[in-house]
Amino acid sequence: MNSATGIVAVATEAGVSVSTVSQVLSGKRPVSAATRSRVEAAIEKLNYRPHPGARSLRSQRTESVALIVPDITNPFYPLVAVGIQDILMPQGYLLSVNDVALPSRTVSETLRHVLARRVDGIVLTTYGCTPADLELIAQSGTQVVALGQDIGVSGSDYVDVDEAAGIGSVVEHLLGNGFRRIAFVGGEREDFTSSLRHSGYREALLSAGLGVDDELSVFTSFTRDGGAAGARRLLELDTLPDAIVCANDLIAIGVIDALRARGISIPGTVAVTGYDDIEAAGLITPALTTVDNPAREIGRTSARLLLDRLNGSVDNVTRHVRLSQHLVIRESSTVVPH
Amino acid sequence: MNSATGIVAVATEAGVSVSTVSQVLSGKRPVSAATRSRVEAAIEKLNYRPHPGARSLRSQRTESVALIVPDITNPFYPLVAVGIQDILMPQGYLLSVNDVALPSRTVSETLRHVLARRVDGIVLTTYGCTPADLELIAQSGTQVVALGQDIGVSGSDYVDVDEAAGIGSVVEHLLGNGFRRIAFVGGEREDFTSSLRHSGYREALLSAGLGVDDELSVFTSFTRDGGAAGARRLLELDTLPDAIVCANDLIAIGVIDALRARGISIPGTVAVTGYDDIEAAGLITPALTTVDNPAREIGRTSARLLLDRLNGSVDNVTRHVRLSQHLVIRESSTVVPH
DNA sequence: CTCCTCACGCATAACGTTTTGCGTCGCCTC
DNA sequence: GAGGCGACGCAAAACGTTATGCGTGAGGAG
Question: How far A294 CA sits from the closest chain B CA (Å)?
Fold first, then answer.
């Protein structure tokens, strides 16, 4: 019914040897034009497609790449995924998207899962990655491109944006608009991205000659619910902040939920800012001031770095690409208080 | 450095034959406890992991499934993806997510790509699927679960929601609120989902005893920009509609963009409704009346259907699961006009 | 005419599994 | 003590590729 057996069927049909068919396919050895066309005719006639399993058995490559993300439901990550596809799919690679946030799944499990499948490369969101995981990666020999930080595995590249500068520009913008008591709601406390954004916040305040009140920093999770929980903690303070800088847009949206539930006007009483510039940031009321995070370009760049490695054209230095971003000013921070 | 050669290394290490190791792994034949533990020790010691390529060479299965979606950037689809992962990942399957909307990519190409990789099954969004594509699927013998419509391939299942009823409930709600001149903005004209939602709209009007004015139906694409374009066409009419029913939330958001750009108040002058209940629907101002579309459950269901097939426990009837949904009433439709 | 050199094609040996038909051994039954 | 039977383990044959070392003509150089 369907595609006939394999390369030997093609060889028989074309009256040549198996190796010749293989050579026609790979082009690694010269084949006369006449033979080539006989083989091609046979391939066409039998509707032959090479068996990727057999191929990978020989070559020890699977022509597939895994993307590991903390939460594909965060609209930032699908964009990363399409960026990767932009580059990888034309080369015949298959991209598998693996979401860690499935019920009670961990990075280690997910990593084991994709390593067991012998993917050629991994684009890894570092969130939740333990030293044991890095050890696993290192000894597996699989190529990895990290998103957001250097994972310190030899021969692995990473791509990031200047998080501290990004958050810094948000804080400066708020200061410029007269906000002074500026709070911060981060993601998971141990998360690297979260702490980068937190230091950016601290440094911006310090370099403006202001003090940093630790009471004004809370950590939660990179989700809408997390943001709401964080905001409620800030609302217990004796004196409210007049602005809340959030580590991503989802958190900011949650913060807005919580403030609004308390009847607090935004930005009249408290300004709120986000990070990533997901689509919802422009839709919510008030529209969210945020930092655009070039997700698709991050995906493309990481795929290119990975591809270089897979083609073996890189020595084992660690390469680092830093993409640029810019502040997006919207309503949630524009009104000057009092 | 890394995981040693293969099953024969394990066999040697444990002092047994290759087949015995295989039997320990698969459990398809009894193995004495003593032997089993020697083998397990060897596996542990050598950090052995079976080679999936070799395995699939024998078994003719890849333990992988492809999801083909029109646009992963539409927040509906990532949810479908995690739903599929919920079911498939625990079984050791790898899910590859394939976005058709990459620059100038077609369903046929994407299909060929995943079929060439010999995936065991495909979860297919029918959007943009030609008869030739279906032919390709049928003769490949790959298991397919379709989303949204029966693709008519023997032995393929599909899962959908009652689109017509969903849109119908929107229209009834609008009629109940006094809206009378109700327009419709669809996705691509030839898209099946789009036309289902369109018929739902027509039928609801007819069964309420109202006429259907074809001038009030426009088709565009399932995106925000598409929605804006559609709205602009409606705005050229001599008399404005007083409500616009959109085929999905993205379109509705675009419609709101366009209306707002013309200074038209929503829902005061024109009400707008969406479909899917993506997160942004609750965030935009005015919050969007819409129909919740159980994306994650759609993913889970389709994965279960696929798994049944892959386990061979189904004869070749076409199974159909219809999931339920409900109207979500928000501000964009609640004000009664005049 | 002989020898060398290409250009082309072939046979064969991996690659790492799973499956299946056969031993072999020990023990039970009569 | 003979026969039978279970339980366990092994060898070998696939599965479909790609890489590699050789063979064989044809044609050119001497």
Answer: 14
Please tell me the distance from the alpha carbon of residue A198 to that of residue A243, in angstroms, as a whole number: 15
Which bases along strand C come within 7 Å of a protein CB atom? 7-21
Q: In what order do the strands lie in the sheet with A243-246?
A: A217-219, A182-186, A243-246, A271-273
Show pLDDT as tens, one digit a residue, over chain A (338 residues). Answer: 444 588 999 999 999 999 999 999 998 888 999 999 999 999 999 999 999 999 999 999 999 999 999 989 888 999 999 999 999 999 999 999 999 976 668 899 999 999 999 999 999 997 778 899 999 999 898 999 999 989 988 889 999 999 999 999 999 999 999 999 999 999 999 888 899 999 999 999 999 999 999 999 999 999 999 999 999 999 999 999 999 999 999 999 999 999 999 999 999 999 999 999 998 898 888 999 999 999 999 999 999 999 999 998 788 899 999 999 999 999 999 865 44
DSSP state of B289: B
> 3-state DSSP helix/strand/coil percent for chain A, to nearest 5?
45, 15, 40
Is the fold of A7-50 the same as that of A62-161+295-323?
A: no
Q: Which of A65, A246, B165 is nearest to A258 (CA)?
A: A246
Interface residues, strand D, Cβ cutoff 7 Å: A 5-8, 18-19, 22, 25-26, 28-29, 48-51, 54-55, 57-59; B 15-20, 23, 29-32, 34-36, 54, 57-58, 60
CATH topology of domain A62-161+295-323: Rossmann fold (3.40.50)
Tokens of A302: 């990481």
Which tokens go with B82? Answer: 């995690």
Closest to A69 in 3D by CA, of A157, A141, A146? A146
What's the CATH fold of domain B7-50?
Answer: 434 Repressor (Amino-terminal Domain) (1.10.260)
Residue A219, H or E segment: strand A217-219
Residue A102 CA to residue B251 CA, distance in Å, equals 29
Return d(Cα A21, Cα A18) in angstroms, integer: 5
* B163-293+327-333 fold: Rossmann fold (3.40.50)
Helix (H) or strand (E) holding B58: helix B52-59
Q: Assess contact for B237 and B210: CB atoms under 8 A.
A: no
Q: Per-residue pLDDT for B103 more than 80? A: no
Q: Sketch the domain layout of chain B as residue ranges.
A: 7-50, 62-161+295-323, 163-293+327-333
Please write the tens of the pLDDT for every residue from B22-52.
Answer: 999 998 888 899 999 999 999 999 999 999 9
Q: Where are the beta strands (DSSP E) in chain B?
A: 64-69, 94-99, 121-125, 143-147, 157-161, 182-186, 217-219, 243-246, 271-273, 290-291, 320-323, 327-328
Is the minimum CB–CB distance between B283 and chain A shorter than 8 Å? yes
Mean pLDDT of B287-306: 96
Looking at every residue in chain B, the average pLDDT score rounds to: 92
For strand B327-328 and strand B290-291, is the pairing parallel, antiparallel, or unpaired? antiparallel
SS3 per-residue string spanning A163-189: HHHHHHHHHHHHHHCCCCCEEEEECCC
Pairing state between β B217-219 and B243-246: unpaired
What is the distance between the terminal CA atoms of chain A, rounded to a whole angstrom? 77
